[in-house]
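Still learning. Any example?
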Amino acid sequence: MPSEYEIYLVRHGETEWNVAGRFQGHLDSRLTERGLAQAEGYGRQLATLEAKIDVLVASPLGRVRETTSIIRSFGRFPETEWEPRIAEVSVGSWDGLTHVDIDAQWPSRLDGTTPFDWFFRSPDGESYDSALARVTEWMDSLDGNVLAVSHGLIGRLIRGVYLNLSREETLALPVPQDVIWRLAKGRVEPIYVR
């Protein structure tokens, strides 16, 4: 990956569907009280960075728009560039469903999957390779210090591409909602939100 950029990667705050175990994909639910507090924590922490943010890029989906708006209220950040290439992976007709819903409507479809790879078993969802290609294309276009506000699964892919990880390693990466990931100089380091 080019070394001319640094990424501060943030996952949106907790949503009602995160709590309910529903995969949101391209659908949305509101941030919870905890999610609002997480977004405020991101904003406070990012406002203290020594590095100047040159570009603020965010997924256009509602939960990220809400998180980004809160972050921007804490400092002098650039205008937001809404970037569909870092929107969450869609699982097609599974968007908004739980594992129980999927098992009921598509029996045996999740057999043999892990907690990390089931997303790509959807009959009409986005493939791993397609999602990886759009993330890679986006990352190849970067320059300067970038604040990226995105999602759990796409955040895994961004970090996996940056570190040149295998599919299995990439999909097993953690996706907390209280960490800012700093991707710089070939390393990914957590900045814990206080």
User: Anything to note?
Assistant: Helices lie at 16-20, 33-47, 62-72, 99-105, 128-140, 152-163, 167-171. The chain has a mean pLDDT of 94. Residues 13 and 35 are 4 Å apart (CA to CA). The chain has one domain: 5-192.
